[in-house]
Amino acid sequence: MDAWAIFEAAILGLLEGLTEFLPVSSTGHLLLAGHFLGFESTGRTFEVLIQLGAILAILSVYFGRLWKLLTDLPRDAGARRFAAGILLAFLPAAVIGAFAHSYIKEVLFETPMLVCSMLIVGGFILLWVDRLPLRPRYNDVTQYPLKMCFAIGAVQCLAMIPGVSRSGSTIVGALLMGSDKRSAAEFSFFLAMPTMAGAFAYDLYKNHALLSSNDMAQIGIGFVAAFISGVIVVRYLLDYVSRHGFALFAWWRLIVGSAGMAALLVWG
User: Fold this and answer.
1) Where are the transmembrane segments (predicted)?
2) Please, what sign has the CA dihedral across residues 180, 167, 217, 211?
3) What is the pLDDT of residues 144-160, one digit of tens each?
């Protein structure tokens, strides 16, 4: 593996960790960056498998809370309801993702103009939602009703279209269903763990025979970079959105989507 391949893997890994938990679409950013860098991974596995670094970033930051949740499950009805809510929210993506896996990887992942369009549309939606006079009814993720959890999970399935954003769709869905901004982002963190772990395991199962030692080395570099940048984002995102909302991310989507679209029209 040459120096350029190492550089590409590190840059894309950092980009994954920085954008995975922001409502800006990490997959969309990776696909656009890879397109303009000329980066092509075997079976588009790199873009999915380096998410493991982002998963471990959440686990490292939330380990104490997750451990308490696990130990409370046998005796705490609230803990059991929260765990059930996360599993219910994960179910729609698990089912649709398994059936649509090939179409997503072979068609949607190969359409950079679609990514740019979804970034722009999502930016306008974030600006609209951020300015709505919403009155939150829930400020604690453990108190979300089960039917609300399932509905957020259904909305998350929109993120199978690259450029939509998994965190963006879940956050917007939660806000419109009555959550405050901080708990909406926090629920998105918790839901990310089974969703991304499931995507990682399924993609590895489908494509492991295609991967070479160079592929695995690139994925390892991207994984480490995604973990480091993901930890930074997870530690500071909740406080930021509590104070400032999502307008910054909306404008970022509009800028990146518009710039990407213009570049595609000029250079292809």
Assistant:
1) 49-70, 82-100, 112-132, 184-205, 217-238, 250-267
2) positive
3) 999 999 999 999 999 99
pLDDT-based confidence at residue 247 (cuts at 50, 70, 90): very high
Please, what is the Cα angle at 94 between 148 and 35, to 5 degrees?
110
Pairwise CA distance, residues 19 & 159, whole Å: 14
Quick one: which H or E segment has residue 178? none
pLDDT at 267 over 90: no
- Across 1-7, average pLDDT: 85
Residue with tokens 């973990």: 227
Contact call for residues 210 and 43 (beta carbons, < 8 A): yes
- Distances in Å between the alpha carbon of 226 and those of 14, 31, 93, 101, 222? 5, 15, 22, 23, 6
Q: Which amino acid is at 118?
A: M
Which residues on neighbouring strands pair with residue 179, listed in sequence order? 138
Give the burial class of 212: count Cβ atoms within 10 A of its Cβ; 0-12 exposed, 13-18 middle, 19 or more buried: exposed
- Of 111-120, 136-145, 231-240, the poorest mean pLDDT is in 231-240
Instruction: Kindly state the greatest CA–CA separation across the chain.
Output: 61
Instruction: Name beta bridge partners: 138.
Output: 179
The alpha carbon of 231 is separated from its chain's Cα centroid by a whole number of angstroms, namely 14
Show the DSSP H helices in 73-111 as ranges.
Answer: 77-106
